[in-house]
Amino acid sequence: MAHSVVVIGGGLAGSECALSLAARGISVRLYEQRPHGDAPAHHTAGLAELVCSNSLKSLRPESAAGLLKSELTLMGSRLLRIALQCAVPAGGALAVDRERFSEAVTRAVQASPCIELVREEVRQLPDGPVVVAAGPLCSPSLSEALSELVGTDRLAFFDAAAPVVYADSIDRTVAFSQSRYEGEGDGDYLNCPMDKQRYEEFWNELVGARRVVAKEFEQKDLFSACQPVEEVARKGVDTLRFGALKPVGIVDPATGRRPWAVVQLRSENCQQSAYNLVGFQTNLTWGEQRRVFRMIPGLEEAEFARFGVMHRNTFVDAPRALDKTFAIPGTTVRLAGQITGTEGYVEAMASGALAAANVAAELRGDEVVCLPNTGAFGSLVAYATDPQTEPYQPMHVNYGIIPPLGGGRLRKAERYRAYASRALADLREYLTLRPDLFADADGKSLGVLDG
Fold first, then answer.
1. What is d(CA 441, CA 42) in angstroms, rounded to the nearest whole number?
2. Sequence-separated (6 or more) residues with CB below 8 Å from residue 354
């Protein structure tokens, strides 16, 4: 194909879309404003930079996150392959060395003869097939251009990144290596245990700590999955103990007992030279982060490689602004990634892959690609584009939005396995019916249809 497609945004969705189109022999012009444009949540100019956590969630095939990865394998996701190559120990989850991952994606894009990488800000939407994957922090000018197409009534939420500490500043006489459940890696997490008194002292200081001064727009809804740890703590003294600080499956080797609460640290890179505080997204001032988080046992002398930050994210009201393929009706523009309100790293990859498939379908004059709603991502797209979804809030893949199974009642684990089995069978059948759209320029399958 000689067609040229414009992809705006070099994040997860945009990079996946560009590489997927290129694999089909379609020419792509990929725009990324960094390093020249303002990108408040980013630290580098690399493509597919992970700005919040380095975890891509569970690999368990019976989980919704694990099922999504299996679906992306079948669909031939380029970024998922790279993520697996850049993995760091994380028990039953897929976590990556974020620098290696970004560098590998950047190399793959630059090496493709079908992709032209343009380092400049897009202020107006160009003609022709366009995929806007600018992320939830797209520039004001691009946001304005989009608002002219979808209307000015946009929603907003806020995303918060967790702090990162240097490994050699962690007290290993207190923090111990252990995974939460047996069989989930060789103690891939560091655990900082708290007894009841220490936990309650920490909780008191956390809920009373000074935050970054809130602007008017920060008074709006917070996306629950990315709420700052201090906001979660304000809901009750035990909220964190049943959430990010739950001690289930952990035994403190110093006492032989389960701690009252535990803070888990996850490796940031393969060298394990830095760790992030799992679940500690925060809007505290940097000084307060240093003071309060050093109350955590084992982190009394912690040195921070990066403090937590909170930033504005925007997304469109997809059920009323987009069609079932995330396209803006009556235009040649479609959206991908978090700007659609589909939240999550792997979900962003999936939306990029889906956008590429639909662009390819349109260029061929074929029917649009609508994944089965029995799957993890197909059900998320169906939810996000259903006019009955109101009010619309950012959503991860989860089994709560997948059509229920028929037959008798099953236990939770059995039900999730059955969901996954049905989803993968339906997706394989669908992809078999669309071999032309899920094949590369030479007709070779992008995924693993016989796996």
1. 34
2. 325, 326, 336, 369, 371, 377, 381
> Token pair 């007709």 is at which residue?
443
- Domains belonging to the chain, first-starting first, are 4-154+316-433 (3.50.50.60), 161-312 (2.40.30.260)
- Buried/exposed code over 81-99 (b: 16+ C-beta within 10 A; e: otherwise): ebbeebbbbbbbbbbbbbb
Using one digit for the tens of pLDDT, what is the confidence trace for 319-356?
Answer: 999 999 999 999 999 999 989 988 889 999 999 999 99
CA quadruple 155, 350, 434, 27: dihedral sign: positive
pLDDT in tens, 188-206: 789 999 999 999 999 999 9
Q: Are 227 and 393 in contact (CB under 8 A)?
A: no
Structure tokens at 212: 């970054």
For the packed helices 12-23 and 78-85, what is the interaxial angle rounded to 10 degrees?
110
Tokens of 261: 């609460």
**What does pTM read for this prediction?**
0.74
